[in-house]
Write a structure and sequence with these properties.
The chain is 33% helix and 26% strand. By secondary structure, it is α/β, with parallel strands linked by helices. It folds into 3 domains: 2-179, Alpha-D-Glucose-1,6-Bisphosphate, Chain A, domain 3; 185-407, 3-Layer(aba) Sandwich (Alpha-D-Glucose-1,6-Bisphosphate, Chain A, domain 3); 409-542, TATA-Binding Protein, CATH 3.30.310. α10 (294-304) packs parallel to α11 (327-335). The longest helix has 16 residues, at 513-528. It binds 1,6-di-O-phosphono-alpha-D-glucopyranose.
Length: 543
């Protein structure tokens, strides 16, 4: 084994997005590409000499190869100890859990989250810092700067580590420990939700389907739901992680988790349905006959979290990303706790969680989490739902309907226009920004604009300002349209249009989402001229 310094040169033409570097697999396969990015990360980690590092990925195509590279480079860069999930697997929440529990300086997580996998799919690398959450902008900026000047990287020339066998080996003076990917995470879950109550629920005949979409959550869901909680074998569908996710697009929404939707909306629906994404941080909840929007799920968890042991003392507050519906705010107001609206991106929750200002947080993009780690956590959300259902002893769809009856219903939909030309997407946003000041009091699609702005966020903890996070248009009819460009796509631009309308009247809680939101969609089109700008008359995906 030899320690080598390999000359290289700058390689990145664009700043990484909200969740690290995400590109096509073929881009990552270019000579030195992975090595350059990993070295740029390591060069930016202050205090890495002698520190512990967590490494793992979601098992997608190229995971195993990149894990070996990261291990050999971490050893050559002075880390004293590396914890790597068995078979190179760690869900994003499990990685966050390990970083915190073993006081690691951070973790390298290999994932492109909900993006498709396989040789023609996507790959990604992100760095989470010592609190277990995504690196803040200051760190990612430093990494990007480094990618512009990099001239060499360090690597141990050694044979591959056996990732399948638990235990310790050495790379030079660095200890590499292959750890059980599930055990520490499962132990943490047991401190938060009542496993006995959930086990009793399953023992009473309660049935669920958890669709892991052939991604990383399968082993976690099988071990916890079927293993520890006694759910019948087969409760977890598509539970084997596959490099191409078995052809699934591992984004837990009604479009991509269509098998689960069909089952839950059909005559033989079990009592509860759930799905998770590529790296296990997102979740989808489906009641029999009823898709629960992520925004409603956050609101319902906020209302009932105190029923689970980890939250029995009540919540400090709740945070949601700006495009997430305002359903959680209504619950916070009733509970008398604080509610925060942050830009899209989990990293914005970290300061609020660290400062103890919030206990729960969530996003319309199917992320829900709490102060137990610093990432969103798909399986945790499912377990908290199960705990609540076990306590309330009511069917899941009844819980949702009663919630609407109490707080009103926030009809919600997201229209995505994928892979549009970046210049056209930028032109649409520029048009909106320019038009914004003249919109108030004008009527579109029967709705009158009350106010509009380009969302800017001042972090209440460190005072930092994050401008231009999306155009919010508020209508006098208690409706809202939000426009922003995705930060996680890998080709062209994705325009997201978020439509929302509040309905307090319970006799109008059974409209279809299309009907309820028709006027908001019409107003959004009239204001933004989506068809003209994108050349598309319909969205690529509606969730
Ligand atoms: C990432 C962030 C999330 C954020 C999402 C937004 O999710 O971690 O906090 O909501 O991106 O995606 P977009 O910019 O495409 O709307 P993930 O699950 O991809 O890591």
């Amino acid at each position: 084994m030899t320690l080598t310094e390999i000359p290289t040169k700058p390689f990145l033409d664009q700043k990484p997005g909200t969740s690290g570097l995400r590109k096509k697999v073929t881009v990552f396969q270019q000579p030195n590409y992975v090595e350059n990015f990993v070295q740029s990360i390591f060069d930016s980690v202050e205090g890495r000499q002698g520190a512990t590092l967590v490494v793992g990925g979601d098992g997608r195509f190229f995971n195993r190869e990149v894990v070996q590279t990261v291990l050999k480079m971490a050893a050559a860069n002075g880390f004293a100890r590396i914890l790597i999930g068995q078979c190179g697997l760690l869900s994003t929440p499990a990685a966050s859990c390990l970083i915190r529990k073993y006081k690691a300086i951070g973790g390298v997580i290999l994932s492109a989250s909900h993006n498709p996998g396989g040789p023609d799919g996507d790959f990604g690398i992100k760095f989470n810092v010592s609190h277990g959450g995504p690196a803040p902008e200051t760190f990612t900026d430093a990494v990007f700067k480094r990618t512009q000047t990099i001239s060499s990287y360090h690597i141990h020339r050694a044979s591959d580590i056996d990732l399948d066998v638990l235990g310790e080996t050495r790379l030079g003076s660095t200890v590499v420990e292959v750890v059980d990917s599930v055990a520490d995470y499962a132990e943490l879950m047991e401190t938060l939700v009542d496993f006995d109550k959930i086990a009793a629920l399953f023992a009473s005949g309660f049935r669920m389907r958890f669709d892991a979409l052939s991604a990383v959550t399968g082993p976690y869901a099988k071990a916890i739901l079927e293993g520890q909680l006694g759910a019948p074998a087969g409760t977890v569908a598509n539970g084997e992680p596959k490099p191409d996710f078995g052809g699934h697009h591992p984004d837990p929404n009604p479009v991509h988790a269509h098998d689960l939707m069909e089952l839950m909306l059909g005559p033989n629906a079990p009592d509860f349905g759930a799905a998770s994404d590529g790296d296990g941080d997102r979740n989808m909840i489906v009641a029999p006959g009823l898709f629960v929007t992520p925004s409603d799920s956050l609101a319902i968890l906020t209302a009932y979290a105190h029923l689970a042991p980890g939250y029995a003392k009540g919540l400090a507050g709740v945070a949601r990303s700006m495009p997430t519906s305002r359903a959680a705010d209504r619950v916070a107001a009733k509970l008398g706790i604080r509610a925060f609206e942050t830009p899209t991106g989990w990293k914005f929750f970290a300061n609020l969680l660290d400062a103890g200002l919030v206990t729960l947080c969530g996003e319309e993009s199917a992320g829900t989490g709490s102060n137990h780690i610093r990432e969103k956590d798909g399986l945790w959300a499912v377990l908290l739902w199960l705990n609540i259902l076990a306590e309330l002893k009511k069917p899941a769809d009844q819980v949702v309907r009663e919630h609407w009856a109490t707080y009103g219903r926030d009809y919600y939909a997201r229209h995505d226009y994928e892979e549009i030309e970046t210049a056209r997407a930028d032109a649409l946003m520029a048009h909106l920004r320019a038009a914004s000041p003249s919109l108030p009091d004008k009527t579109f699609g029967g709705l009158t604009v009350e106010a509009c702005d380009d969302f800017a966020y001042t972090d209440p903890v460190d005072g930092s300002l994050t401008p231009q996070q999306g155009i919010r248009i508020l209508f006098k009819e208690d409706a809202r349209a939000v426009f922003r460009l995705s930060g996680t796509g890998t080709s062209g631009a994705t325009l997201r249009v978020y439509l929302e309308r509040f309905e307090p009247d319970p006799s109008r809680h059974d409209l279809s989402r299309e009907d309820a939101l028709a006027s908001v969609a019409e107003a959004a089109e009239a204001i933004a001229q989506i068809t003209t700008h994108t050349g598309r008359s319909t969205p690529s995906v509606i969730t």
